Protein backbone atom coordinates (compact mmCIF):
# COMPACT_ATOMS: atom_id res chain seq x y z
CA UNK A 1 0.00 0.00 0.00
CA UNK A 2 1.54 3.28 -1.05
CA UNK A 3 -0.25 5.83 1.04
CA UNK A 4 -2.48 5.93 4.10
CA UNK A 5 -6.00 7.33 4.51
CA UNK A 6 -6.44 10.89 5.75
CA UNK A 7 -9.53 12.81 6.76
CA UNK A 8 -9.57 14.44 3.31
CA UNK A 9 -8.76 11.25 1.39
CA UNK A 10 -10.61 8.33 3.00
CA UNK A 11 -11.45 6.32 -0.15
CA UNK A 12 -9.18 3.35 -0.95
CA UNK A 13 -8.63 2.61 -4.64
CA UNK A 14 -6.71 -0.25 -6.20
CA UNK A 15 -4.86 0.65 -9.38
CA UNK A 16 -6.26 -1.54 -12.13
CA UNK A 17 -4.74 -0.08 -15.29
CA UNK A 18 -2.35 2.59 -16.52
CA UNK A 19 -2.78 3.59 -20.15
CA UNK A 20 -0.66 6.09 -22.05
CA UNK A 21 -2.91 8.43 -24.03
CA UNK A 22 -0.38 10.81 -25.59
CA UNK A 23 3.38 11.36 -25.19
CA UNK A 24 2.78 13.12 -21.83
CA UNK A 25 -0.68 12.01 -20.65
CA UNK A 26 -1.70 8.82 -18.88
CA UNK A 27 -5.07 7.51 -17.71
CA UNK A 28 -5.01 5.61 -14.43
CA UNK A 29 -7.93 3.27 -13.79
CA UNK A 30 -8.96 2.39 -10.23
CA UNK A 31 -11.21 -0.20 -8.76
CA UNK A 32 -12.87 1.49 -5.76
CA UNK A 33 -12.58 -0.80 -2.76
CA UNK A 34 -15.83 0.42 -1.21
CA UNK A 35 -17.82 2.14 -3.97
CA UNK A 36 -17.48 5.78 -4.94
CA UNK A 37 -20.13 8.38 -5.75
CA UNK A 38 -19.42 11.15 -8.18
CA UNK A 39 -21.01 13.23 -10.90
CA UNK A 40 -19.70 13.62 -14.45
CA UNK A 41 -17.17 16.46 -14.60
CA UNK A 42 -16.16 16.40 -10.94
CA UNK A 43 -12.61 16.02 -9.65
CA UNK A 44 -10.92 14.23 -6.79
CA UNK A 45 -7.95 14.91 -4.53
CA UNK A 46 -5.27 12.24 -4.55
CA UNK A 47 -2.74 11.64 -1.77
CA UNK A 48 0.55 11.48 -3.68
CA UNK A 49 4.23 10.85 -3.07
CA UNK A 50 3.63 8.60 -0.06
CA UNK A 51 2.85 11.74 1.93
CA UNK A 52 -0.59 12.28 3.46
CA UNK A 53 -0.02 16.04 3.35
CA UNK A 54 0.72 16.15 -0.37
CA UNK A 55 -2.53 16.30 -2.27
CA UNK A 56 -3.18 16.98 -5.90
CA UNK A 57 -6.48 17.47 -7.69
CA UNK A 58 -7.32 15.54 -10.86
CA UNK A 59 -10.48 15.44 -12.92
CA UNK A 60 -12.29 12.14 -12.93
CA UNK A 61 -12.32 11.20 -16.60
CA UNK A 62 -14.66 8.23 -16.27
CA UNK A 63 -18.43 8.66 -16.12
CA UNK A 64 -20.70 7.39 -13.36
CA UNK A 65 -22.70 4.37 -14.42
CA UNK A 66 -20.33 3.51 -17.28
CA UNK A 67 -18.45 0.56 -15.85
CA UNK A 68 -16.90 -0.46 -12.56
CA UNK A 69 -13.74 1.60 -12.91
CA UNK A 70 -12.93 5.14 -11.91
CA UNK A 71 -10.27 6.87 -13.99
CA UNK A 72 -8.19 10.01 -13.66
CA UNK A 73 -6.20 11.38 -16.57
CA UNK A 74 -2.90 13.01 -15.72
CA UNK A 75 -0.54 15.18 -17.76
CA UNK A 76 3.06 14.72 -16.67
CA UNK A 77 4.41 18.16 -15.84
CA UNK A 78 8.12 18.82 -15.56
CA UNK A 79 8.98 18.87 -11.84
CA UNK A 80 5.33 18.21 -10.98
CA UNK A 81 5.38 16.16 -7.77
CA UNK A 82 1.96 14.58 -8.24
CA UNK A 83 2.04 13.93 -11.97
CA UNK A 84 5.56 12.43 -11.94
CA UNK A 85 4.75 10.19 -8.99
CA UNK A 86 1.50 9.00 -10.53
CA UNK A 87 2.93 8.39 -13.99
CA UNK A 88 6.36 7.01 -13.02
CA UNK A 89 6.09 5.33 -9.63
CA UNK A 90 2.54 4.02 -9.31
CA UNK A 91 2.03 0.48 -10.61
CA UNK A 92 -0.96 -1.75 -11.29
CA UNK A 93 -1.99 -3.38 -8.00
CA UNK A 94 -0.95 -0.43 -5.80
CA UNK A 95 -3.43 1.27 -3.51
CA UNK A 96 -4.12 4.99 -3.48
CA UNK A 97 -6.43 7.12 -1.34
CA UNK A 98 -8.81 9.60 -2.90
CA UNK A 99 -11.04 12.30 -1.46
CA UNK A 100 -14.75 12.35 -2.01
CA UNK A 101 -15.63 13.80 -5.42
CA UNK A 102 -15.60 17.59 -5.53
CA UNK A 103 -16.50 20.45 -7.82
CA UNK A 104 -19.61 21.96 -9.33
CA UNK A 105 -18.67 21.65 -13.01
CA UNK A 106 -21.14 18.94 -13.90
CA UNK A 107 -24.08 18.34 -16.21
CA UNK A 108 -25.95 16.06 -13.80
CA UNK A 109 -28.59 18.70 -13.04
CA UNK A 110 -28.76 20.26 -16.49
CA UNK A 111 -31.65 19.21 -18.71
CA UNK A 112 -31.31 20.63 -22.20
CA UNK A 113 -31.83 19.33 -25.72
CA UNK A 114 -28.66 20.87 -27.17
CA UNK A 115 -25.14 21.14 -25.77
CA UNK A 116 -21.86 22.61 -26.97
CA UNK A 117 -18.67 21.28 -25.35
CA UNK A 118 -15.48 23.32 -25.84
CA UNK A 119 -12.24 21.75 -24.65
CA UNK A 120 -8.63 22.91 -24.78
CA UNK A 121 -5.72 20.50 -24.16
CA UNK A 122 -6.03 18.54 -20.93
CA UNK A 123 -9.32 20.31 -20.26
CA UNK A 124 -10.89 17.57 -22.31
CA UNK A 125 -10.98 15.24 -19.29
CA UNK A 126 -14.22 16.54 -17.71
CA UNK A 127 -15.61 17.18 -21.19
CA UNK A 128 -15.21 13.48 -22.03
CA UNK A 129 -16.77 12.45 -18.73
CA UNK A 130 -19.73 14.76 -19.33
CA UNK A 131 -20.19 13.92 -23.01
CA UNK A 132 -20.12 10.18 -22.39
CA UNK A 133 -22.68 10.59 -19.60
CA UNK A 134 -24.98 12.87 -21.60
CA UNK A 135 -25.08 10.44 -24.53
CA UNK A 136 -26.51 7.79 -22.21
CA UNK A 137 -28.56 9.86 -19.80
CA UNK A 138 -29.98 12.52 -22.15
CA UNK A 139 -30.83 10.17 -25.02
CA UNK A 140 -32.37 12.85 -27.22
CA UNK A 141 -29.74 15.55 -26.69
CA UNK A 142 -27.75 16.89 -29.62
CA UNK A 143 -24.10 17.40 -28.66
CA UNK A 144 -21.40 19.32 -30.50
CA UNK A 145 -17.79 19.05 -29.32
CA UNK A 146 -14.85 21.27 -30.36
CA UNK A 147 -11.51 20.07 -29.02
CA UNK A 148 -8.34 22.16 -29.47
CA UNK A 149 -4.89 20.59 -29.25
CA UNK A 150 -1.36 21.61 -30.19
CA UNK A 151 -0.82 18.76 -32.66
CA UNK A 152 -2.90 15.71 -33.63
CA UNK A 153 -0.59 13.59 -31.45
CA UNK A 154 -1.87 15.46 -28.39
CA UNK A 155 -5.47 14.29 -28.69
CA UNK A 156 -6.50 12.58 -25.46
CA UNK A 157 -9.02 9.71 -25.78
CA UNK A 158 -8.47 9.72 -29.56
CA UNK A 159 -9.96 6.27 -30.09
CA UNK A 160 -12.92 6.85 -27.82
CA UNK A 161 -13.82 10.12 -29.56
CA UNK A 162 -13.81 8.28 -32.89
CA UNK A 163 -15.85 5.43 -31.46
CA UNK A 164 -18.45 7.73 -29.86
CA UNK A 165 -18.76 9.88 -33.00
CA UNK A 166 -19.46 6.72 -35.00
CA UNK A 167 -21.87 5.14 -32.54
CA UNK A 168 -23.86 8.34 -31.93
CA UNK A 169 -23.40 9.89 -35.40
CA UNK A 170 -27.01 11.13 -35.44
CA UNK A 171 -26.53 13.42 -32.42
CA UNK A 172 -22.83 13.81 -31.66
CA UNK A 173 -20.46 15.90 -33.78
CA UNK A 174 -16.81 16.01 -32.76
CA UNK A 175 -14.45 18.53 -34.38
CA UNK A 176 -10.74 18.43 -33.59
CA UNK A 177 -8.57 21.50 -34.11
CA UNK A 178 -4.76 21.42 -34.14
CA UNK A 179 -2.51 24.48 -33.98
CA UNK A 180 0.31 22.63 -35.75
CA UNK A 181 0.44 19.76 -38.24
CA UNK A 182 -3.31 19.73 -38.82
CA UNK A 183 -4.14 17.13 -41.46
CA UNK A 184 -7.02 14.88 -42.43
CA UNK A 185 -10.10 15.67 -40.32
CA UNK A 186 -8.35 18.28 -38.18
CA UNK A 187 -9.22 21.94 -38.61
CA UNK A 188 -6.04 24.04 -38.53
CA UNK A 189 -5.54 26.77 -35.93
CA UNK A 190 -7.44 27.79 -32.85
CA UNK A 191 -11.09 28.24 -32.05
CA UNK A 192 -12.41 31.68 -32.96
CA UNK A 193 -15.71 33.55 -32.77
CA UNK A 194 -15.98 33.22 -36.56
CA UNK A 195 -15.73 29.43 -36.38
CA UNK A 196 -18.39 29.32 -33.69
CA UNK A 197 -20.71 31.67 -35.58
CA UNK A 198 -20.38 29.88 -38.93
CA UNK A 199 -20.45 26.28 -37.72
CA UNK A 200 -22.86 26.49 -34.80
CA UNK A 201 -25.60 28.90 -35.90
CA UNK A 202 -27.85 27.75 -33.02
CA UNK A 203 -25.18 28.37 -30.35
CA UNK A 204 -27.51 30.71 -28.41
CA UNK A 205 -29.90 27.78 -27.90
CA UNK A 206 -27.23 25.49 -26.46
CA UNK A 207 -25.90 24.83 -23.00
CA UNK A 208 -22.20 25.65 -23.38
CA UNK A 209 -19.62 23.94 -21.18
CA UNK A 210 -15.90 24.63 -21.42
CA UNK A 211 -12.68 23.49 -19.81
CA UNK A 212 -9.12 24.36 -20.77
CA UNK A 213 -6.40 26.89 -20.03
CA UNK A 214 -7.72 29.96 -18.19
CA UNK A 215 -7.05 32.25 -21.15
CA UNK A 216 -8.90 29.90 -23.50
CA UNK A 217 -11.92 29.76 -21.19
CA UNK A 218 -11.97 33.54 -20.77
CA UNK A 219 -12.04 33.98 -24.56
CA UNK A 220 -14.69 31.31 -24.99
CA UNK A 221 -16.85 33.01 -22.37
CA UNK A 222 -16.49 36.35 -24.14
CA UNK A 223 -17.37 34.87 -27.54
CA UNK A 224 -20.30 32.84 -26.21
CA UNK A 225 -21.74 35.97 -24.61
CA UNK A 226 -21.31 37.96 -27.82
CA UNK A 227 -23.05 35.19 -29.78
CA UNK A 228 -26.09 35.28 -27.53
CA UNK A 229 -25.49 32.42 -25.07
CA UNK A 230 -27.34 33.44 -21.87
CA UNK A 231 -25.10 33.50 -18.78
CA UNK A 232 -27.23 30.85 -17.07
CA UNK A 233 -26.45 28.42 -19.91
CA UNK A 234 -22.69 28.95 -19.82
CA UNK A 235 -20.50 26.79 -17.56
CA UNK A 236 -16.74 26.85 -17.21
CA UNK A 237 -14.48 24.78 -15.01
CA UNK A 238 -12.90 26.97 -12.34
CA UNK A 239 -10.23 24.39 -11.64
CA UNK A 240 -6.99 25.70 -13.05
CA UNK A 241 -3.66 26.81 -11.68
CA UNK A 242 -3.77 30.51 -11.00
CA UNK A 243 -0.99 32.68 -12.35
CA UNK A 244 1.56 33.20 -9.63
CA UNK A 245 4.05 35.51 -11.30
CA UNK A 246 4.73 38.65 -9.34
CA UNK A 247 7.18 41.27 -10.47
CA UNK A 248 10.06 42.08 -8.20
CA UNK A 249 9.21 45.73 -8.12
CA UNK A 250 5.88 45.05 -6.45
CA UNK A 251 7.53 45.75 -3.09
CA UNK A 252 8.32 43.59 -0.08
CA UNK A 253 6.14 43.06 2.97
CA UNK A 254 6.42 40.86 6.06
CA UNK A 255 4.64 37.55 6.46
CA UNK A 256 4.66 36.39 10.09
CA UNK A 257 3.86 32.78 10.95
CA UNK A 258 2.80 32.86 14.57
CA UNK A 259 3.16 29.18 15.47
CA UNK A 260 6.71 29.11 14.08
CA UNK A 261 7.61 32.49 15.55
CA UNK A 262 9.14 33.35 12.17
CA UNK A 263 8.97 36.34 9.84
CA UNK A 264 9.54 36.21 6.10
CA UNK A 265 10.05 38.97 3.59
CA UNK A 266 7.71 38.31 0.64
CA UNK A 267 6.68 40.16 -2.50
CA UNK A 268 3.51 42.17 -2.18
CA UNK A 269 0.83 40.59 -4.39
CA UNK A 270 2.07 37.02 -3.88
CA UNK A 271 -0.54 34.45 -2.94
CA UNK A 272 -0.30 33.37 0.68
CA UNK A 273 0.15 29.75 -0.47
CA UNK A 274 3.11 30.54 -2.71
CA UNK A 275 4.68 32.81 -0.09
CA UNK A 276 4.52 30.02 2.49
CA UNK A 277 5.85 27.39 0.09
CA UNK A 278 8.68 29.65 -1.05
CA UNK A 279 9.77 29.90 2.58
CA UNK A 280 9.58 26.21 3.33
CA UNK A 281 6.38 26.32 5.37
CA UNK A 282 4.32 23.31 4.42
CA UNK A 283 0.67 23.87 3.54
CA UNK A 284 -1.77 21.24 2.37
CA UNK A 285 -2.99 22.24 -1.07
CA UNK A 286 -4.60 20.58 -4.04
CA UNK A 287 -6.57 22.59 -6.59
CA UNK A 288 -4.58 25.81 -6.00
CA UNK A 289 -7.51 27.75 -7.38
CA UNK A 290 -9.87 28.31 -4.47
CA UNK A 291 -12.16 25.38 -5.03
CA UNK A 292 -11.27 22.41 -2.83
CA UNK A 293 -10.71 24.05 0.57
CA UNK A 294 -7.55 22.06 1.31
CA UNK A 295 -5.38 25.14 1.99
CA UNK A 296 -7.64 26.65 4.70
CA UNK A 297 -5.42 28.94 6.83
CA UNK A 298 -6.18 31.27 9.73
CA UNK A 299 -5.11 34.90 9.37
CA UNK A 300 -4.64 36.78 12.64
CA UNK A 301 -4.35 40.19 11.02
CA UNK A 302 -2.90 42.21 8.17
CA UNK A 303 -3.56 43.52 4.74
CA UNK A 304 -4.78 41.04 2.11
CA UNK A 305 -7.46 40.42 -0.50
CA UNK A 306 -9.26 37.20 -1.34
CA UNK A 307 -10.61 35.88 -4.63
CA UNK A 308 -12.44 32.79 -3.37
CA UNK A 309 -14.08 31.66 -0.16
CA UNK A 310 -15.49 28.39 -1.53
CA UNK A 311 -16.00 25.69 1.10
CA UNK A 312 -15.44 28.15 4.00
CA UNK A 313 -18.38 28.48 6.39
CA UNK A 314 -19.52 31.87 7.70
CA UNK A 315 -18.12 30.95 11.12
CA UNK A 316 -14.73 30.16 9.58
CA UNK A 317 -14.69 33.41 7.62
CA UNK A 318 -15.66 35.36 10.74
CA UNK A 319 -12.87 33.57 12.61
CA UNK A 320 -10.32 34.76 10.04
CA UNK A 321 -9.87 31.69 7.86
CA UNK A 322 -8.88 32.19 4.22
CA UNK A 323 -7.92 29.90 1.37
CA UNK A 324 -4.17 30.43 1.12
CA UNK A 325 -4.16 29.89 -2.64
CA UNK A 326 -6.79 32.58 -3.09
CA UNK A 327 -5.40 35.13 -0.64
CA UNK A 328 -3.17 37.85 -2.08
CA UNK A 329 -0.81 39.50 0.37
CA UNK A 330 -1.18 43.28 0.06
CA UNK A 331 0.76 44.37 3.15
CA UNK A 332 2.24 42.97 6.34
CA UNK A 333 0.26 39.93 7.42
CA UNK A 334 0.23 37.52 10.39
CA UNK A 335 -1.10 33.97 10.19
CA UNK A 336 -1.64 31.52 13.02
S1 LIG B 1 -5.65 24.48 -2.71
FE1 LIG B 1 -7.76 24.15 -3.12
S2 LIG B 1 -8.69 25.88 -2.22
FE2 LIG B 1 -6.59 26.27 -2.03
Characterise this structure:
The strands form 4 sheets. The chain has a 6-stranded parallel beta sheet with strand order 10-9-8-7-11-12, with helices on both faces. It has a 5-stranded mixed beta sheet with strand order 14-13-17-15-16. Strands 5-2-1-6 form a 4-stranded antiparallel beta sheet. Helices cover 19% and strands 32% of the residues. The protein has 3 domains: 11-98, Translation factors (Elongation Factor Tu (Ef-tu), domain 3); 114-236, Nucleotide-binding domain of ferredoxin-NADP reductase (FNR) module (Rossmann fold), CATH 3.40.50.80; 248-335, Beta-grasp domain (Ubiquitin-like (UB roll), Roll). The chain is built from 7 helices and 17 strands. With 336 residues, it is of the alpha/beta class. The chain has helices at residues 81-89, 124-137, 158-167, 193-199, 214-226, 272-278, 314-318; strands at 11-22, 25-32, 43-47, 55-59, 70-75, 95-98, 114-120, 142-149, 172-178, 187-188, 207-211, 234-236, 252-257, 262-267, 296-306, 321-323, 327-335. The structure holds FE2/S2 (inorganic) cluster. FE2/S2 (inorganic) cluster (FES) binds at residues 285-288, 290-295, 323, 325.
Record the SSE blueprint.
Layout: E1 11-22, E2 25-32, E3 43-47, E4 55-59, E5 70-75, H1 81-89, E6 95-98, E7 114-120, H2 124-137, E8 142-149, H3 158-167, E9 172-178, E10 187-188, H4 193-199, E11 207-211, H5 214-226, E12 234-236, E13 252-257, E14 262-267, H6 272-278, E15 296-306, H7 314-318, E16 321-323, E17 327-335
Parallel strand pairs: 7-8, 7-11, 8-9, 9-10, 11-12, 13-17
Antiparallel strand pairs: 1-2, 1-6, 2-5, 3-4, 13-14, 15-16, 15-17
Bound molecules: FE2/S2 (inorganic) cluster.
Amino acid sequence: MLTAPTSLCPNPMRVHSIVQETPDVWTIGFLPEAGYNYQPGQYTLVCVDDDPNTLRAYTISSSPGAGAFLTITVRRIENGVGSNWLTRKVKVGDYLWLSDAQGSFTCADIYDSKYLMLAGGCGVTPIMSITRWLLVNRPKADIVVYYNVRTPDDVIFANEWKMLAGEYHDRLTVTMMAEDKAAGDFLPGRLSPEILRENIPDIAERTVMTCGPAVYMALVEQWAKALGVPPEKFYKEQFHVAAECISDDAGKVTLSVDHLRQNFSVAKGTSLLVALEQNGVSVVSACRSGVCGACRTKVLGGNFTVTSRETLSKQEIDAGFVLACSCKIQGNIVIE
